[in-house]
Predict the structure of Glutamate racemase.
Amino acid sequence: MDKSKLPIGIFDSGVGGLTVVNKLRMLLPHENIIYVGDTKRNPYGSRTAAEILSYTRDILRFMSAQSVKLVAIGCNTVTATVYPQLMQEVPYPLIGMSKGIKTAQKISAGGTIAVFATELTIANHSHKKAAAAWDPGLKIIEQPCPELAGLIERGYLQGTKIMAPLQKYLAPVLQTQADTAIFGCTHFPFIQPLFEMLSQDRLAFVDPAHEMALEVLEVLKKADLLNRNSHSGTLQLCFTDATERGGMLAAQLIPKHEFSVQKIRLT
């Protein structure tokens, strides 16, 4: 069997990982992709580590049944809490969500970088740890945003319902010397225009999905697993609930005719 023709798997607790899918398709247009959004058990940001481990194992069993050649975790919370343990449990490369530190460092003039993420990702201080390892001179401002992912998941991409909490989360960051901000949750690029408007261009925003797409490219190259088909790859979106809403949000990023949507059961 030619393993290069096998699909890439990407998953998230909901629709956030679609922002990763979008970047990956731009960089690797010939790859076939299977996306799993666990919309039935979303959000993961308020779950325990034990619950997240169990849910992620369910997803990886599904991915294994689809004969994927690689899986990318499009979820910062999963990456921050259970990724190291899961790496040893699957027979294919498993890539955690990138932190975006390298890109943010290049952009930041003053070396003070904000991170907007779920409570659990912030509690793990994963971005602070990555920054300290990469460049101890960087200062990381951590800002938990407990309401945003859930609101985006329910389709609130504009209006007062999403603007009010966003203003609340931005306010303390704008009182600091931060000039660059990382989206530490893959849901947040859906509302990047709102972040930019409310910050009044005081912050440059970094979507780590680009770094992750580059890492996937490198891993596939080294393993000689790049799909060399000349035609565009397929995109299959699988959700555990609310498939219609998942498809609607996907269409904010990807033309409708370029993907199919289905409901799946993981347990």
Notes: Strands lie at 8-12, 33-37, 70-73, 94-95, 112-117, 139-144, 180-183, 204-206, 235-239, 260-263.
